Amino acid sequence: MNGEVDEESSLVDINETAIFLNLSKAKVRKLIERNILRNNWGQYTNLIRFTKKVSHIEEGSVLNYSDANLEIIRGFPKIRRCLLLEPALKKNFSSVDEVAVEEKMNGYNVRAAQINGDIIAFTRGGLVCPYTTEKVNELIDPTFFEDYPNLILCAEMVGPDNPYVAKTCYDVNSLDFFVFDIREKNSGEPYPVKKRRETLEAYKIKQVNLFGYFKPKDAHKEITKIINEIGSEEREGVVVKDPEMILQPMKYTTSNSNCKDLEFGFKFYNDIGRDYLFSRVIREGFQAAEWNENNQKLKDRCYRVGSSILYPMVNTINSVGKNKKVTEDAQIKVTRLEVLDLFKQHLNRSGIEVHFEEPIPEEDGYIVKMKKLNKSTNDKTESIWLGDYW
Amino acid sequence: MNGEVDEESSLVDINETAIFLNLSKAKVRKLIERNILRNNWGQYTNLIRFTKKVSHIEEGSVLNYSDANLEIIRGFPKIRRCLLLEPALKKNFSSVDEVAVEEKMNGYNVRAAQINGDIIAFTRGGLVCPYTTEKVNELIDPTFFEDYPNLILCAEMVGPDNPYVAKTCYDVNSLDFFVFDIREKNSGEPYPVKKRRETLEAYKIKQVNLFGYFKPKDAHKEITKIINEIGSEEREGVVVKDPEMILQPMKYTTSNSNCKDLEFGFKFYNDIGRDYLFSRVIREGFQAAEWNENNQKLKDRCYRVGSSILYPMVNTINSVGKNKKVTEDAQIKVTRLEVLDLFKQHLNRSGIEVHFEEPIPEEDGYIVKMKKLNKSTNDKTESIWLGDYW
């Protein structure tokens, strides 16, 4: 969120907010002073987001001040990751008869809600994303929010026309919206899995795959099969849920996904690599141990991990050595050029530097290619080619 | 240095110290207040060490207060590491006609000096190490310090009877002392390479291998050959020096050494692995790029890196899963049991928890096996086997 500039001073009504959030007025004042409560820009200055977790309120939560009633869209809670499936299922899910296993898709997390009559899409951090907002309005049957103005659709934006995480492994042409949770405004209460799936089916709103319901004590075998299958298609992983959504869900990912993260991270080793590295190799180590891999399987995994780190890094070093900078390339597809302008402003205000190429007109909109320069990796590699130490 | 307790309050004479170090009296007072100047224990409370770098004085520097004159043993300066040999040689050494290339051995760094008539060995941090002090007194011809009371021998302690870094790749039976630098007390000025080598030869004091003197523009080819040769013997690397010791030296290590570090680090992935990981894979990536490795060489390196991370980690996870804790095992060999007691106190005061077994008598001393429990890795692995999240 660096580089972001607030357009207006905060519109927060301190009294009303303190009562609504059950915080003291002094605390609300502090949150404004410290810029933890921050307003959106453009036409959405009435939407104030939490840039940090504050007592019981998640980071990325959004307060809406312009409705008849003040309301809050809760930030999407972090899903815990398990490293050893069988023990984690036993410890965390033995109080339920069965668990629901759904797909964890690889895209970016958004929340769509109807705010003062408009359908708006929020990023994980609580910013209004103009690009996603356009997409969501094109993709979702608007009668859903007419019938349920009090609900929030929590979804993954997936597909190749993706400014953040472009993946071609899903059967998606441009960019699509896959719901994995329905939650209520204010309380943040989630719908049970069956109720959510039925509700969404009635409106033909897409949702993530449901692989099935399994007994907790058998689930690790089923999930292992699923993980191996979807891993071979470069898909990301699963989320294990209490069907009633009372217990906290947990996620588990494929080796392919861990390694793809490493590949991406080490193309930009000095921007992203460091943060990605340790957690991914830890996941690989625990998966290998739990699956009791024979020598050949483990050797394959060692090579997979090593080459996911070294190949992209060596390519980057060679490329910069030949004076060719490395960039992170993506594209979006907009219906209206006005949305492109808003999206550029959105990235700019989020402190993300991106170079956009000229829009390419298509039958049903414009493809816009974008390049993000990961400056630290380019600069560091160049300086080492010039003889600097690390 | 956690857990360390000072035996007496500081003996620092503030006036004298301020003049000697060319610092203000207020600054010296602050250094004492903040425990940055800290005294040794036991019979060496007169030796005060710098636990942090302070203006021009390196961390690990030691002030000696009990001599006729106050004197300082400078901390050993950090040697910069190069990632791409040829560019780093060009940038950093093109002002000299030739560079000296010596071996960087894998052990622990000590400084030996004569202090108030006794030969004493200091750790990198400036503590008196009782074990190393005994060894040094057994290994070095004492006439050296009689002739040169003003000199410091900077050396690597190498061999299997090594409490910190046990290596069997060198032709060393128990533990030996290999000098790589001679420096003067107070000024810290180093001897030129030839003068140092001749001086040490005269006293038959061992020193690190000298591979040769090379022209800076050819040195990368020679060093690459050396690195490949010594790497195949599991040796660590080289230090490139200005023969006059005016330019700062630089180090460069073998792939084998990087991978051995990873192996060690990932046996104890949650204690050591995280710190080791990023830097080692970065070194591997740059070496592969500079050596322009063909596909098979690079594939081998990928496997080497991946297996150095995963095999030890999977072994640790499996071992803890079978209720067998992982420990870091080492041994020392002392001539007098009194030294063992002092060494135990030394580790204890440095906050290192070690379990020592009963000494095993040998013809010429006692072998003492020691086990260090890396608690964080054992505890974390156990908790994950019990179903906890990361």
TrEMBL record, chains A, B:
Residues passing through the membrane, by range: none
Pfam families noted in UniProt: Lig_C, RNA_ligase
Domain RNA ligase Pab1020 C-terminal: 265-387
UniProt keyword annotations, A-Z: Ligase
The protein's name: RNA ligase
Domain spans labelled RNA ligase: 97-253
Organism the protein comes from: Methanosalsum natronophilum
InterPro entries for this protein: Lig_Pab1020_C, RNA_ligase_dom_REL/Rnl2, RNA_ligase_Pab1020
Gene Ontology molecular function, alphabetical: ligase activity
Keyword Ligase carried by entry: yes
